[in-house]
Amino acid sequence: MLLFPFLFVGIWAASAHLAGNETTFPSPLRVWTIVLAEAKSGDLFIHVGATLARVIAAFVIAMGVGCAIGLWMGRNRGINRWADPWLVFFLNLPALVTIVLCYIWIGLTEAAAITAVAINKIPMVAVMMREGARTLDPGLNDMARVFRMSPGAKLAHIVIPQLAPHFASAGRAGIALIWKIVLVVELLGASTGVGFQIHTYFQLFDVGAVLAYALSFIAVMLTVEYLLLQPWERHANRWRNAD
Question: Among 58, 106, 207, 241, which has the highest number of CB atoms less than 10 A from its own CB?
Fold first, then answer.
């Protein structure tokens, strides 16, 4: 992990030097200069913040709805048989189609952008949580009934610990997918955000600015990954490794 940034920048710098064209293949120093200039003007923080807000909103909605659907399907065979074709349909529905239809039906609004992203994420969460619900240990359920545990205690001490690893895995996989879809949403119809800026600088053929915004948001998501998501996943799986 510690070597990766140095190796990445080293390979990038060497490739840029061999390419010998700062316009189409800017060096790390050139991109860093653009990042500092955009940060100094405040534009970088405005657009990264707008994208991050959309990612968080879509993530919360998708995890909430997807978990509810997945648990319902996993614990009810009749519902699973009825809902499975719908789940497969939405899993295979292209994200681009969802985005375009949401913009047409709802309008070029924040609601349309977040809805389009959430719709693309919900099926994946539902699938992962459905599999988690199917693997709940019936022996633990019997134990809870023998000891006459209350519904709240059963949920807190038996159901949630078993589902936590699946929830954490769905969250990690989902956040990586969501922010990529958010960029497409912004490119097609937003007036702020990293995707909007990438589209703007693409039209100007400014590769350095495109890389500056892309790498800035990747840095934000890597920070979220290593400081929040990975510790959360380890915490969710701690009971599996308990003696």
Answer: 58
- Give the whole-angstrom CA distance, residue 132 versus residue 163: 6
Q: Cite the DSSP H helix spans in 20-137.
A: 28-41, 43-75, 77-91, 95-106, 110-134
What is the rounded distance in angstroms from the CA atom of residue 228 to the CA atom of residue 243?
25
User: Rounded to whole angstroms, how far apart are CA atoms 230 and 34?
Assistant: 31
pTM (2 d.p.): 0.85
Cα separation, 202 vs 200, whole angstroms: 5
The verdict on domain 42-241 having CATH code 3.40.50.2300 is no
For residues 58-68, give the mean pLDDT: 92
Q: Where are the domains of the chain?
A: 42-241
Which of the pair, 52 or 140, is modelled with greater confidence? 52
Q: Is the pLDDT of residue 52 over 90?
A: yes
